[in-house]
Amino acid sequence: MEMEYRSWTRQQLAQLYHTPLLELMHQAAEVHRRHHDPCQIQVCTLLSIKTGGCPEDCGYCSQSAHHETGLQRQQLLETGAVVEAAQQAKEAGSTRFCMGAAWRQVREGEEFDQVLEMVRQVSALGLEVCCTLGMLSQAQALRLKEAGLYAYNHNLDTGPQYYKQVVSTRTYQDRLQTLAHVAQAGISVCCGGILGLGESEDDRIDLLHTLASLPAPPESVPVNALVPIAGTPLGQQARVSVWEVVRMIAAARILFPRAMVRLSAGRDQLSDEAQTLCFLAGANSIFSGDKLLTTPHPGLAKDAELFSLLGLEPRAPYEEISASTTSAMPR
Ligand code: SAM
Ligand code: DTB
Ligand code: SF4
Fold this sequence. Notes:
- The chain is about 40% helix and about 15% strand.
- It has helices at about 10-15, 20-35, 80-90, 110-125, 140-145, 160-165, 170-185, 200-210, 240-255, 270-280, 300-310, 320-325, and strands at about 40-50, 95-100, 130, 150-155, 190, 195, 220-225, 260-265, 285, 315.
- Strands 1, 2, 3, 4, 5, 6, 7, 8, 9 and 10 form a ten-stranded parallel beta sheet that branches.
- The two termini are about 20 Å apart.
- 6-(5-methyl-2-OXO-imidazolidin-4-yl)-hexanoic acid binds next to strand 2 and strand 7.
């Protein structure tokens, strides 16, 4: 039986998380089929519109100025180049285009105006436009919404306790504040985490509990597996096992039946079989292309092969709106 939103206690969530895996996957698959067409996967494209030199010290990130990662910095891209990339993404089958900037926070001025113009033009292509630009004020969130921004990605990454070990230049509370600004502006919230930061299972449960305690459920939950970056404090972390990824996806699917659960970073290390388990457990979105923001990714041809093998088809844009108004998907 599905539980109502916000009715999960920490203890119930821990119990859910520790359900034997096969049973957990089965429950998640059932929930998934009630709310989504299991053969449809949304394909998204990421573009780093401003790369590197970030003042934050996130222990996992290639783009932090605090770590020596050898990453080439890139100032804010021209609007024309971004719109062209979005057009190409659309032609290649993506329905969501996410622009990421290595900023601590958005600052008013020429660059923000330019990002607003990118949002206007990408939105005009009929793509779901998403941005991830760091912290936002309420006024900035409203300006992005007005420009046509559909979604904003801002991850909580892990539980509140472990967060302090990973990032010191901002607080968990700062993240929650931006998420509130995004939601209050009527922008779709994309918020998830990263597995493999050295966190415990309790930290993962705490992350799920925080997500499930937000004033409204996130419409989109990315599940990332750490891509260890040489030169960062977490550069020597071992890759998480696929079983942990599957467990987290299944738990997220059960907690957020209508959300898009996105199998995000780390997919380059997952076999076809492993990705199939993730889809069975309720993941219904991937990023396409041979690069995420700064790290390598499987690429179009490989994904097309997997889609054909599994009989998957790309999902149309703006379906999360219709998913939230449908209680069951006939199939
Ligand atoms: N600067 C903005 C921010 O941090 O909110 C947006 C860009 S940031 C790269 C977007 C998200 O990517 C982070 O919140 C984190 O969850 C994820 N991420 C960054 N580096 C990663 C890595 N090496 N492996 C997995 N996920 C990563
Ligand atoms: C998210 O949760 N995953 C994407 C997107 N949001 C912006 C980013 C993953 C970044 C992986 C590391 C990189 O390529 O630099
Ligand atoms: Fe900056 Fe975002 Fe990377 Fe943190 S995750 S260092 S905020 S780009």
